[in-house]
């Protein structure tokens, strides 16, 4: 049976701020949503106020005067099996976003290295010859990676 916002349940364990509640005969993970109650003792009545991929959000029933005034009143909240699937999907999405960010950063850093190297090499070759262009290119490589190492070293100190 689905759990909905505004539904009442009972704390099976103390919620400090997380624990378990019983709703419709099912024992479910829950966490306290912001309210006056800092903790809810075992056996206390709670009201479902929401939920996410990590569990139900509840408040002490004493803190909810009219459940029908809650945002989303009557809407279904995902159950634990669904929560696990949602959590896995959220973790996968977060990992993919991090990978995309890393890829973009690498592309930017590559462009910051390659474009000046090409300009220095071609310009050096046109003005000073091939040997000077190679020396300038090598100097750029040493400077670029030396600065990168210095930033990595000193950046990790702070």
Summarize the structure.
This protein has 158 residues and is of the alpha+beta class. The chain has two helices and seven strands, in the order E-E-E-E-E-E-E-H-H. It folds into two domains: 3-78, Beta Barrel (OB fold (Dihydrolipoamide Acetyltransferase, E2P)); 95-155.
What attributes does this structure have?
158 residues, alpha+beta, five-stranded mixed beta barrel, two-stranded antiparallel ribbon, 47% helix, rod-shaped
Your description of this structure?
Strands 2-3-4-6-5 form a five-stranded mixed beta barrel. Strands 1-7 form a two-stranded antiparallel sheet. A hairpin with a 6-residue loop joins strand 2 (8-11) and strand 3 (18-23). The chain folds into two domains: 3-78, Nucleic acid-binding proteins (OB fold (Dihydrolipoamide Acetyltransferase, E2P), Beta Barrel), CATH 2.40.50.140; 95-155. The two termini are 53 Å apart. Helix content is 47%, strand content 22%. The longest helix is centred in the middle third of the chain and has 49 residues, at 80-128. 16% of the residues are buried. The protein has helices at 80-128, 130-155, and strands at residues 3-4, 8-11, 18-23, 26-32, 45-52, 55-60, 76-77. It is rod-shaped and about 85 Å long. The chain is α+β, with helices and mostly antiparallel strands and 158 residues long. Helix 1 (80-128) packs antiparallel against helix 2.
């Amino acid at each position: 049976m689905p759990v909905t916002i505004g539904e009442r349940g009972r704390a099976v364990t103390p919620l400090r701020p997380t624990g378990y509640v019983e709703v419709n005969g099912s024992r479910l993970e829950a966490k306290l949503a912001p309210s006056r109650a800092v903790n809810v003792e075992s056996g206390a009545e709670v009201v479902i106020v929401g939920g996410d991929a990590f569990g139900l959000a509840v408040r002490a029933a004493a803190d909810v005067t009219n459940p029908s005034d809650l945002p989303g009143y009557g809407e279904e909240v995902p159950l634990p099996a669904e929560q696990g699937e949602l959590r896995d999907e959220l973790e996968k999405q977060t990992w993919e976003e991090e990978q995309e960010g890393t890829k973009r950063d690498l592309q930017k850093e590559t462009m910051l290295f390659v474009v000046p190297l090409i300009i220095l090499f071609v310009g050096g070759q046109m003005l000073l010859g091939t040997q000077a262009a190679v020396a300038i290119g090598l100097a750029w490589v040493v400077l670029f990676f030396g600065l990168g190492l210095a930033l990595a070293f000193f950046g990790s100190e702070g």
